[in-house]
Amino acid sequence: MTSARDPDASDPGGDLDVDAVSKLEFDRRPETDQSFENALAKARDGDRLTVDDGIELITTGTDVAGIDPERKEAVLEIADRRRAETVGEEVTFVANLNNNVTTACNTGCLFCNFKDSAHAFEAESGIDHPGFTKTPAESRRIVSDALEFGISEVCSVSGLHPAFALNGEHHDILESYADPEREVNYKPPAAYATDPGTYREQMAAMSVDDVHLHSMTPEEAYHAKRGTDWSYEDVYRELEAAGLDSAPGTAAEILVDEVRDVICPGKIRTDDWVAAMEGAMAAGLDTTATIMYGHVENAAHRVEHLQVVRDLQDRTGGITEFVPLSFVHENTPLAEHGVVDGGASDAEDELMIAVSRLFLDNVAHVQSSWVKYGDEKALKLLNCGADDFMGTILSEEITKRAGGEYGEYRSFEDYVDMVNAIGRIPVERSTDYRTRHPIDPDDGPYGPTIGPRADGTPMLAGRDRELGRSGSVNADD
Ligand SMILES: C[S@@+](CC[C@H](N)C(=O)[O-])C[C@H]1O[C@@H](n2cnc3c(N)ncnc32)[C@H](O)[C@@H]1O
Ligand SMILES: Nc1c(NC[C@H](O)[C@H](O)[C@H](O)CO)[nH]c(=O)[nH]c1=O
Ligand SMILES: N[C@@H](Cc1ccc(O)cc1)C(=O)O
Ligand code: SF4
Q1: How far is CA 123 from the centre of its chain?
Q2: Does the predicted interface ipTM exceed a cut of 0.90?
Q3: What digits encode the pLDDT tens for the residues 126-145?
Q4: Share of the chain above pLDDT 90, in %
Q5: May I ask the CATH architecture of the domain 7-443?
Q6: Contact status, residue 266 vs residue 252, Cβ threshold 8 Å
Q7: Which parts of the sequence belong to the Radical SAM core domain (predicted)?
Q8: Which residue ranges make up the annotated binding site?
Q9: Are strands 436-438 and 425-429 parallel, antiparallel or unpaired?
């Protein structure tokens, strides 16, 4: 166990030494022995890029201050061409539901405003809080309702509720610690107003019919094995038996420990993240990989991160897509403490997507996330190297709570209109990309066709605009 967490962290971020952070001096700096021109030539020729090459491209040259617009256009153009050569003109998206089970979490990541202190969820706390915990029965009902709208995937990521355990045996092990709250971040379900059930029970509950269940990030897998000598593979096999189909590679943030020490000191380190991903893939699950950028890290950290992902994919081959997540800063502890006063610029977002496409020569798909970028920029990014356009999601809490304003739903009609507008081909995909249904823009109305109950009927027919503006199919308690 490599994680150093503080189970008492009831005000995550409250102890931040702002002076120390604002004077951040990282060991790793964006300095190279490469020139921008040489790096660009290698990218154009399709040679495998080194970290130095990647740094030159993502900074448009370490010899110039700031981003050079002409050099940037050259990088974006090569990335867009690489996208066209490797995956063609299709723009994919998935009919999915986002179902977060609980916001209770004491990990204290300083970029996150999704979590609420777990103490507030205790039956006796008397503390009013905006968070929620869903029982397995509630999760099942939410998934069943969404199946009627035609979804093929449930994406579920959650806070690390102290009462969460993998299964009954895990509860027994966690209870046997002399001081479980301090030693293994555990309190029994009876202490809380709502019992989240076990991870096994939540997976079984959300795995309705043949829906694809995409859940259990490396951080959640760590939580599901804390205090035991189980391997990540053991944990993922158990979850798979309960209905899990693939794992989201979030919790990646920046896979360089000097950055993790600042933004998420309570989280697993880079090595553990990689071990969890390898465990998931050893258990036979597909994964995705992410990067969350645009906070305190520098260009060298971004490219080092890409190297970790590329090495992992060389060993496993199980990463279906790479998802750059641009940091949403507004309501986060990092912004509230004055450590950051904004996120990535448009140019940085474009270069992040482009260099992901060029550097990750072994990952087929790069996502443009509308929930992070908004429609206009997300469409632009589909011309900078991205080919996937995320999913319908129906409900969103993480970005919204951080201050993001791009809503929580996109209909098939929205997708067809937007993808058509940039002259590409809209394609509904399964999570693993193995099933792909191109959509004929002249043959509306458009609805999902891949999910177990999908019959081409538009999702939420008639109610979609209303939902996109204000609501959610998820009931928060
Ligand atoms: C909120 S966590 C939930 C799952 C689990 N607790 C974990 O950390 O893996 C999922 C991911 O959301 C992303 N995230 C959280 N806050 C964000 C923010 N303010 N801006 C962008 N992405 C954010 C991070 O990449 C994080 O790993
Ligand atoms: N499924 C995808 C999501 N889902 C929403 C996330 O769970 C979350 O609310 C937020 O994005 C966390 O940072 N988001 C994506 O960006 N891409 C997806 O494929
Ligand atoms: N669906 C993507 C992206 C994602 C992003 C943030 C999340 O919290 C969850 C998922 C994944 O599988 O990784
Ligand atoms: S990112 Fe995940 S682990 Fe970190 S505080 Fe938020 S919910 Fe908890």
Answers
A1: 31
A2: yes
A3: 999 999 999 999 999 999 99
A4: 90
A5: Alpha-Beta Barrel (3.20)
A6: no
A7: 91-361
A8: 105, 109, 112
A9: antiparallel
